[in-house]
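Continuing from the previous page...

OK, I double-checked the sequence for Lipoprotein against my notes and this is the correct one:
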Amino acid sequence: MPGRDGPSDRVGRRTYLGLAASAGIAGLAGCSSGGTASAARGPPTVPEDQLAEGGWEKIDEQTMDPLFEQSFGPVEVTAAMRTYVYEDVELKEELKAKTLGQAEGQFSMFFASRVSLDPSMGNIPDAVSDPVIDQTEGQAREQFEAQLEDAGLVDIQQTSTGTIEVETGETARLTEYSAGFPFPGIEFPVNDERTLSFEGETIGVTGLLAVWEHRGSILIAGGAHPGENLDMELSKAPTDAIEVTVDIDLGLTPEAYLEELRSLITAVE
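Thanks. Re-ran it with the corrected sequence; updated structure tokens here:
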């Protein structure tokens, strides 16, 4: 974004959260053994009004049927999955404008998936239902982390695990993540022959992944967003007589993004 001396900020990669449509649990497909799933194929229900008001737009959806067919003790379980993925287009356009078009791509994303099971969770013995949820959650984490890595993030870590209450009354398992986006710095021309370059720094990213059972299905919802603002002052002296100072402040609001993401997750059913 422009500093007081007028350079444009070349922010990051063209996209640092370019997550695939199956961001949460596409890795489960590796368990597929073929066949036809008889599980219901209904999509997740998402808070459409809240998404629209917040400037979010659906960018992808995917059906995987069957998702997997696997024996858990004496029970053969077949699963199908529907996934919706959204991006915060309002934030995307805001950052593009602030950086004179240099920052383009996904900066905040949200996804929701429904895993429909045959037999449904309500008809699976407790001794089997827990391993089914455990496997789904474990592979959801692995795939989510892989997608963050593919998007160019570094130092991806699970920072905590716990629970979160969702609006339908269930308690979801919640995994929190931290990661870093290597901001590569900026460069701008001083004249026709010379360009000044400034080294960048790593910007924090926060992610959430929630898994819970609802009406016989398994729901997975989560996303990622900037975890800190980029606010820095850089100085460089191209000659003994000239010192150039660049101020960068993208005006990011991590706490507001986190509150919004948690609200979207808990509204899924």
